[in-house]
Amino acid sequence: MIVKLTRKINNSQITFDIDERETERALEMATFLATDDYCFNCKVSDKIKWQSNRAKGKEDGKEYIYVKRHCYNCGADSTMGKYLTGGLFWKQFEVYDKGEGVAPKNATSTPQKASNEAPHPADEVNIDDIPF
Ligand SMILES: [Zn+2]
Q1: Hey, which of 7, 25, 73, 77 has its CA 20 to 30 A from 51?
Q2: Could you tell me the distance, in angstroms and rounded to a whole number, from the CA of residue 48 to the centre of ligand 1?
Q3: Helix residue ranges per DSSP H, the chain
């Protein structure tokens, strides 16, 4: 399935040709790309910028690529990357606390730990905390 999609990212108009054999994967990527830039953490839409970074897994040495929608209002990120087992993960907007990991808004208990995800995009991640 081929999906053509044009949207503005940061200050550029970008046209994508998503070419995926599986319809679900094409629609998964199209949905990620087409979703409005809106921070569900602080409810703003005019402070979102797209970013990308790479991080290396401390144990497997593999390089992981992340695409993030970053909110300059509250510091939250919505991150997309690949699961170790294939397919994409796409996280909700969340503020990353270097000491505690991801701290859900208004959290009163232990921060949530992701499962079946590649290491967190931050370089400071302790890969021993990631269950494989
Ligand atoms: Zn925000």
Answers
A1: 25
A2: 8
A3: 23-34
Q: For the chain, what is the domain count?
A: 2
pLDDT at 124 over 70: no
59 CA to centre of ligand 1 in angstroms: 32
Torsion (CA) 89, 95, 98, 103 in degrees, nearest 10: -90
Same domain for 71 and 124? yes
CA of 41 to the centre of ligand 1 (A): 5
**Pairwise CA distance, residues 24 & 16, whole Å:** 17
Shared-domain flag, residues 96 and 123: yes
Calculate how far, in angstroms, residue 35's C-alpha sits from the geometric centre of ligand 1: 16
Q: 45 with 99, same domain? A: yes
- pLDDT tens digits, one per residue of 48-69: 999 999 999 888 888 999 999 9
pLDDT in tens, 61-99: 889 999 999 999 999 999 999 888 878 899 999 998 777
